[in-house]
Amino acid sequence: MPKFFGKKILMRIYIGEGDKYGRKPLYEALIDFFIQEGFAGATVLRGVAGFGAHSLYHTDKLLRLSNDLPLIIEVVASQEKLDNAMPTIDEMMNGGLITTETVNVVRYCNKDDNKCVMNEP
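^ that's the sequence the OP posted. Answer follows.
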């Protein structure tokens, strides 16, 4: 298992559930891209409510059905890996928001083979 602890970058991609890349949901296309590029992992989080640049409120309440709930895709990687991926990510997106922040990875496990890497103090 590669050394995957210490200083890394957390990238968050904010999009709508209804956003597309071609005929595919954008979040699925982004996950496929991250797999193809060998990222360690990615997570898609679905919001219960939110609004974006157009201030249009989206919610999951029954009285106000929405098929465009907010999604956040989180990926942790090296700055270099994210820099190399950004042109493709930018090309795939039509709107949305991307943020990054430095994080300290202290534990990374592959549960399939029970191998864990821990950051030693």
